Amino acid sequence: MNELLRQLLYLPPQASTVARGVDHFHMVVIITSVLGAVGVAAAVALFLIRYGRRREEGRGGMRAAGGRVAHVPFGLEIGVIGGLLALFVTFGVIGFRQFVHLRTPPPGAMEIYVVGKQWMWSYAYPDGSATNHDLYVPVGKPIKLLMTSRDVIHSFWVPAFRQKQDVVPGRMTTLWFEVAEPGTYEVLCAEYCGTQHSTMRGRVIALDAEAYARWSEGRAAPEQDLAAQGERRAAEVGCLRCHTVDGAPHIGPTFAGMFGSQVRLATGQRVVADAAYVTESMMDPEVKIHAGFLPVMPSYRGILQAGDTAAIVAYLRKLGEVTASQPVSPPAQGLPGVHAPAEEIP
Amino acid sequence: MIPDHPAAAPAEPVVHEIDFWRDGRTVGSWLLTKDHKRIGIMFLAGVTLALLVGGVFALILRLELLTPDRTFIGPNAFNQLFTHHGVVMIFLFMIPAIPAGFGNFFVPIMIGARDVAFPRLNLASFYVYVAGAILLLATLLIGGLDTGWTFYTPYSTTSYSTVALAVVGVFVVGVSSILTGLNFIVTIHTLRAEGVTWHRMPLFVWAIYATSIIQVLATPVLGMSVLLVGADRVLHWGLFEPALGGDPVLFQHLFWFYSHPAVYIMILPAMGVVSEVVSSFSHNPPISYRAIAYSSLGIAFIGFLTWGHHMFVSGMSVFDAGAFGILSMFVAIFSAVKVFTWTATLYRGRIAVTTPLLYFFGFTFLFVFGGMSGVALATASLDIPWHDTYFVVAHFHFIMVGGTLTGFLAALHYWFPKVTGRMYSERWGLVSSMLVTLGFFFTFMPQFLLGNAGMPRRYWSYPAHYQWMNVLSTAGASVLALGLLITFGYLTAAVLRGRRAGPNPWGSRSYEWRVPSPPPTHNFETLPRWRKGPYDYHYGNGGAGNGDDRQHA
Amino acid sequence: MATTASTPEPAAPHGLAGPYHSVPARDNALHLGVWVFLGSETLLFAALFALYAGYRAGYGADFHTAAHHNEMWIGSLNTLVLIVSSFFVAWAVHLVRTGRPRPAVWSLAATILLGLTFLGLKTLEYTHHFAEGIKPGAAYANEALPGPGPRMFFTLYYAMTGLHALHVIAGLIVIACMLIGVRRLRINAARPTLLEIGGLYWHLVDIVWIFLWPLLYLT
Prior knowledge:
The structure holds 3 protein chains of 3 kinds. By secondary structure, chain A is of the alpha+beta class. Among the domains of chain A are: 110-218, Immunoglobulin-like (Sandwich); 226-319, Orthogonal Bundle (Cytochrome Bc1 Complex, Chain D, domain 2), CATH 1.10.760.10. In chain A, 33% of the residues lie in helices and 19% in strands. Chain A has helices at 2-8, 19-50, 74-103, 209-218, 226-237, 275-283, 306-319, and strands at 110-117, 120-124, 130-132, 134-138, 142-149, 154-158, 163-167, 173-178, 183-189, 201-207, 262-264, 270-272. In chain A, strands 3-2-1-5-8 form a 5-stranded mixed sheet. Chain A is elongated. The two termini of chain B are 34 Å apart. Chain B is globular and about 70 Å long. Helices cover 63% and strands 0% of the residues of chain B. Chain B is mainly alpha-helical. Chain C has a single domain (48-218), classed as Four Helix Bundle (Hemerythrin (Met), subunit A). Chain C is built from 5 helices and no strands. The longest helix of chain C is centred in the first third of the chain and has 47 residues, at 23-69. The N and C termini of chain C lie far apart (72 Å). Chains in contact: A-B, A-C, B-C. At the A-B interface, helix 2, helix 3, strand 7 and strand 9 of A face helix 3, helix 9, helix 11, helix 12 and helix 16 of B.
């Protein structure tokens, strides 16, 4: 039945764990809508035929008076409207709960970075490798995508998974899925983004455990794990010129113990230094300034690729476990060449 | 607020006025007219031209979509065409067509007034519309616009296309809309003739009143939003640019704060037409006058609170999604009230099946199904797969074409004898209404399936397995176009050679049928004092049949 | 049947053109019309207030610091200037209603003077800002208050006060027309409406400022 309706409604294969539930709800709502529309139209057609004026009465004429006054019981009116309202609200509540489910990644999901840019998708994996266009995932494990855009708003849409989320520059959005069946599934950009919007495609290649293992090994194995790669890259691009790794105060906040800790911003706000925070700090460092530090960090947009970012995040995550030798604090007054900010914002 | 008792007005010259068409035949007498009827006609001419232009764009799009890759135009041209299709159809046709066209013509007559409150402002609103239209046309010719009618940032602030000129055009057209709305609100409050109380007005006037409130309050926000896009673009203000600390999603909030109520600007007047058509051709009063009147106000009010349902996939919190979803369900129920009332009004009527009523029949199915597809989208979870796919395109075309355009066509036929003094051919009306309804159905029903299958909107090229549904949709569009062309053909012929119509060919009780066809310039020789209400189909002398519900034999 | 001139309108008292048959009726309509118009103007500014609220939620203390940087004395003086100017408009309405056009003209002249003072103070303020590198958007270059938060605050500041200043200019044009009308006695005790509605517009301009002032100076 599910399969019959799915085909009748031209729905894609139900390749993710949420697809079936979404489709079932879809079918209920659509069938109700069709029945409702047909029912109303049928009632109107019935009345048009049943109560049509006979030809000799003509269309007009003041004497073509109305029929006997119909008295629609107030109860019927309230019943119909109340019933419809209850139906709509029920749909709303069911949909809302399903929405929460679709938007809440299960804990422990494998995180993969996605970057959308005009007009392609690129991905970075936990082990440090990166691919373009094709996203490789294992079947049967929840996957959480951490997505951002390099330029304009795009949208990551996998019809077979029934999942879609806008990809916005300057922030990170998430999308999760768990693939039920191995296969290749189309990715389409679903937010108009310019000339080649309609060719900004990709694929999710879901592999069963064995094939996934083969794929992981088969790739040009990175010489180091992701965190080690991150350490190398951080040194290469100059992070360590301003950030220490042992807790010593310097121009930027120390990396030791930072990842996962609470950071107080210059605005007074407190945020957690998670993957999104550090990624944003690399790309748009002026958006969130750690309290007590000068906003002098340059942006690494264009310098660090998606793979680099992921690697550095992994490196910072590892350093997050290092206990800082001192509490993280801004450099003392009088550090040569450094002017402390006039006053810390209360 | 009731104007002076007519008996107190000075004695008027006993002149049998000639009809408004013949009262002044120079171009100047039209271009400088203060007659609301002439202004309404000029608006109708403008919106019809816009419908034609927007329709041509749509046909080109559908032809391009016959094949999965390039058929005969490239992606930039395609992107500009769908943008201009949207901009022209929405701002130059859908928003002004019924209110500024038929509303201008009929609202004063329907309340027993000689004109709208501010006739010169009315003329000005027409010229502002024309100015905005010229700016938008100029945009098309100078570089084009390719941002989509929705102008999402940061694409709109960085696109190569001519955005700044376009946003000025949109702003200007918005001013016209505000002026129209302002005029109607004051007119309806202050110019109702003696005896035309709020509950003795034709329901079309209630619809225009609710529409006008939305126009006045929502349009300024659109104006501001698009101007800020212009500022971001030209002056690099960065209000919506992440690199300068801006948030592109905030633009979406501002934009949809207008654009959701805007869809009610587009549908409420059509619903007003439907109310008139249903009663006039069934010779039954509406089963509940207050239900129709107040549901219009309900839609106008709640419609301001639901804009977030366009943004479920933008990254908003689940809390926001829940709130907007539930509010959207409430706005849907007001439409359900109307559909129930109209259907029940037909019960035991004495129904003349004419072209307007045939359009009403089409409206019933198309609007109910289109509306339900909206309820489906508002459930939020179903919007995740459907957002930005052809499902949404089908949904809004069902409502806008199946709803508003159908209402517009019904109005054209229903009021044709009153405006022109002639009758159109019912036979041609039957043929073309069937072509329009069937053509429409085959254009947009496949698009629901295309959306289900996952085809995103605004796609110049698409995966090959979507092709057959695209071909079917294009075929339907050709039939729809044919139906519309035939409609304008026989209506034009009828203007020139149609059989003369009397003041009330439909036997309607509504007030506009109590003046000559076509009406004289000042509508009434003496201001009317109507004893019978506009839906007084069952009573001989005075009495109910209007705003009183629960009628009794 | 050939036509020459168009059919004359049914005669109305006072040579009143348009659909109203009495002056009170028309004046009532003009009042309602202005209120509706003020409603639309309110929503126009509301869009900017909404943007301000959205960004303030994000940039919190940055907005606070940046607002502190604005010269409160200019802002507060401007508030006083506008409030007094509104008083003069209201006083002029009263004078016209009680048949004293000459002092009314002076009162309106005072309004215009105060309005110009407002614009002058704003110009002074903008000049100060520009000198410090405080300009909207990408042109923002103030070192004491770097970063996206202050930049956004000041961009919104320019947008909001700029839109308001445009309305002040429009309002001054309206008041000037009213002044001429009163002087020529076309606006008089029997027909004060145009001044009343012009005055309402000026009051809106004042009220908008009263909301801008705390958000941009006092916060």
